[in-house]
Amino acid sequence: MKSLSYTVLGLLLTPLVFSVLVSFTTSQYLELPRNGLTLQWYEQFFANPVWVRALANSLAIAALSAIFSVATALATAAALVRRPLRWKTAWESALLLPMVLPGVALAVGMLAVVRLTPLWGNPLSLALAHSVLSLPVAYLVLRASLQKMDPNLEAAARGLGANSWQVFRFVTLPLAAPAVLAATLFSLVISLNEITVTLFLATRDTQTLPRVIWPNLRFAITPLVAAASVVLLTLTLPAVIAAGWWLRPRTPRGATLR
Amino acid sequence: MTRPWRLLLLPSLFLWLAGVLTPLVFVLRMSLYAHGEGSGEKHFDALFYQPGTWSLQSILTVLTEPFYQRLFAFTALLALTVTTLTLLCGYLLGYLVYRATPKRKILLILLIALPKFTNILVFVFGVKMIFGANGFFPVVAGEVLLLVPYAALTIAATLETVPYHLVEAARGLGASPAAAFWRVTFPLSMPGVAAAAILTILWSASGFLGPYLLGEPVHYTVAVEVERQVRQNLNWTLAAALNVVLIALLAGGAYTMSLLRRRLA
Amino acid sequence: MIEFVEVSKNYGAVPAVRAASLAVRPGELLAVLGPSGCGKTTLLRIAGGYEQPDAGLLRIGGRDVTHTGPQHRNVGMVFQNYALFPHMNASENVEFGLRMRGVAKDERRRRAAAILSLVGLDDIGHRKPAELSGGQQQRVALARALVIEPAVLLLDEPLANLDRNVRLRTRDELRALQQRLKITTILVTHDQEEALAIADRISVMDAGRIVQTGTAIDLCLRPASPFVSTFFGLPE
Questions:
Q1: What is the ipTM of this complex?
Q2: Separation of alpha carbons B157 and C32, rounded Å
Q3: For chain A, what is the domain count?
């Protein structure tokens, strides 16, 4: 039984290992390296303005969308956590809706909306679209962190004379800082990897890295695709590990004795 | 009393109205247009739909044409196959996490979640290399591997809430390890399995990348057809109609499942 | 001084405090004694401004503060779990209330060090709460409540989280400090021994009601109800 479990885990991780190995192949096709390793596919990647431009677009859009989604999620969580509000559950479900909606449905709708606005062809439209998709995750992370926080800490700050903003600025925000960082990293990763909505909304000038990988993956497959994938991986992987580190369960600190 | 904190809800309200509700309303409205002159042709300035018209043509096409009926039937078949296998594999991995020592637990969770944070295209590309040429099996394998992390972590989280002393109590009363599992642990983990089932069926039924990149045209799902109608045939009304029917079916399915889940609980 | 007039508080349909009236005299230490769930912590949170009463009045120093927020009451509260800010060191915790009042940094440092010294904690100002023992955390929380020179000091089971030896010593020091500063204090506890040892007067609470308020001798010799006498464990 246990070996079966490990087989599943192995299968889950093999695709990753494969694509990393293939990016160093000396062959012209997608094959595992046989006669030594080469960096030529990475050289080609960084020599080609289309790929480099896409990389720059990806980073800019990811940064913008992370700012939008984390700021929005933080404001929403600060407003909703610990406040009894009649429409709270309904509002939270609505916010989480993009998680369960078919991506293509949202993408088609966004395409129709964006084409009617001046944002068509502007990276801002992609950043906003990506933040719609990462908002549920950012919200869940921040909500969990705020809910875990000892409500007496905020009460104590108020009793010592802090107003609502000061309570947030000096107590809530510093304590939620790891969650804010984690939410930011998750949002960055979601944006860097997003393809469905990007496929519909990106134009020639706003192509992201996944958007450029896409046709290459379907039609002209060279190890350059693997190299591009690994570049993306080296951007997202440290972010994920860092987020996991910040969110790791910790022994309770002084304030939560008992 | 004034409630200035309500202003904090404005950003999410804006993002939700502009990014979720308006697009969905547009999809619904688009599915009821007469389709544009651009259909079937590939010039980008064509009309994608005829504004101001009302027509049930696209919805009827989706509901009545055998091609689309087969498309929905195949999507459902794929979703059910993928969900069954995903839950099985997810339970195996979830149980592995549950029984691991605290240190290994973190490592296992990281390893299970890792593929979700690597690019989906990289991942599918790797699947293609392992499972070979395009076909039904690679599609199923790809979708299962894409969804298994969510299922595994959901199930693991529920298993964590099952106090181990219940199992010990069962053992003390004479249950074998297997009996203790099937009589105590498994029934108590059902809420997690049910939650994972609902998410998996929703996500596999709207799956797009796996079928597109790993399948032949006979393995294309509704979502793939939507992409082809929008980006290749420029028939936006048909794409919208496909989306409307898909969302209606998924919402109906999710509602039925949540009723069943409440009945079971 | 602080005065409750017919204060009531319900959580949904459940009454937590029912028509409680109580006047704490200036400089007095009054213990509110009762079993868990009797409403004593709710009463204290109403005094601190963390709960709004459904009915009744609350006066501090003669001023009606029933609808005043906690930040405008000038009340010092020590929470049962201390609620020390885990991201600030002991000195920063104590300085917090002064910072909110716009006191300059040097002045804050000086007053925090003085008050920490008063509660018997020299040289630990730079330590984070997690690096302090339970007894030290308790004193930091006390110092943080005292440094703002509150009109009333509120203590929610301040000794409940301490080991027995530390508890007895801290109890006596707490009483000595209170008498020295002559600060009006409400202490909530479920431990009659603690109440008897430390308080000028004791209010006994049961199911949301204040059953009797008086000195230890009053309560022992003239219990108002069988509940009071059973709580003090004396034969009738």
A1: 0.85
A2: 42
A3: 1
